[in-house]
Amino acid sequence: xxFIGALDQGTSSTRFMIFDxxxxxxxxHQLEHRQILPKPGWVEHDASEIWQRTEEVISTSLRKSGIAxxxxxxxxxxxxxxxxxxxxxxxxxxxxxxxVWQDTRTQEFLDRFSDSEKALIVSKTGLAIAPYFSxxxxxxxxxxxxEVKSAVESGHALxxxxxxxxxxxxxxxxxxxDVTNASRTLLMDLEILDWDSELLRLFGIPREILPTICxxxxxxxxxxxxxxxxxxxAISGILGDQQAAMVGQVCxxxxxxxxxxxxxxxxxxxxxxxxxxxxxxxLTTVCFKFGKEPARYALxxxxxxxxxAVQWLRDQLGLIKxxxxxxxxxxxxxxxxxxYFVPAFSGLFAPYWRSDARGVIVGLTRxxxxxxxxxxxxxxxxxxxxxxxxxxxxxxxxxxxxxxxDGGITANELSMQIQSDVMxxxxxxPKVIETTALGAAYAAGLAVGYFKDMxxxxxxxxxxxxxxxxxxxxxxxxxxKKWQKAVERSLNWMDVKK
Length: 498
Prior knowledge:
The protein is of the alpha+beta class and about 500 residues long.
């Protein structure tokens, strides 16, 4: 029997998962990596550490499952999307830490663009003018790190998102990316699906350091026999993590939608072959492109801090020892006690796009305790999700009747019930909740014939749990109004141009 592998490189950890033809997980291993925080608003990773973790999770998952690398029909890669890395192609070593998608250091650079330049960027890319995306991060590296600048000028530098870094390392030198990751850089034209000369000029990026843009499902390269896989295996799928979750949730048709709960929170709506321009603060992005098939597009709402707010309670405040404890702590009180938490640690993403916002906890009284803060954290996740799904309904004209959800926090039963109550719709969790890896596996398997077609993948989706809203809950209206008041308190904290 053959299997399909998926390398899932996320914001806080890296894992390798092995699936059989039924989409069942038969092997996996996961390791965290450091979060490097040099200054307020700066977030970095060590790309060498990420590569080391990649080697470890691949070799360990194969060993623990008793599966040989040669038994993998293909490998898919899915990754934290906008995080940017630049390396020396001669030595294979990073020239600086990666700049993570949460990082806000490039706001001043973006503020220098004229209104006409901003309009051009938004029109071509479907994105917002925000430090979130890769273009300004790459500009910062070139203009602020002498080693990077020298390598670029001498023709020794290569750059890209994490998928291209991992592909390059696994294959021994193939420099490619896929359309979903390229669509998150502010450098690719959505209509032609290629790097755009005007955008490259505006951001000061030489085309030659960037990877070739490919579809999401094709043979990009093969792994090296002396690498962690231990065999020559086709690397046949690449998808940004949120698009991978769409594929894993088999949201292949126009109108299909999913919400992923990870470090951040991301809702996507498949708009088919149509590029829908948002009027309510959402992003237009590539959903996926399988081989020579036309690209499918999506509307996306992005929330910067959801799961990482739970990490903050654990690591910075010490209110919990592990992420799972938040459910017990929050369940110890019947409501939030009037406490609202806006975790705008790096500004607010959709639908606000406000880099001047910062985190606030409001409504505190002497009666407030750590259980109220824990519950307010879970509610913040749900309120932020409600905002982007409301915007999505306004843009698309389609009102969601249920939510398909995935990601780590969906294992939190209380959080999902709160989400159902806030939205007043049913919330559905699939049998496999870690659908980013599954989506990468589907993309890789489709390219090598491991899966026959998308219809076969759709038959494998199974519902595991459904939450129904409490129609008597006041959180959907009264709680949401107070949340919006709390958001107002978070704005205008930093002195940046809007």
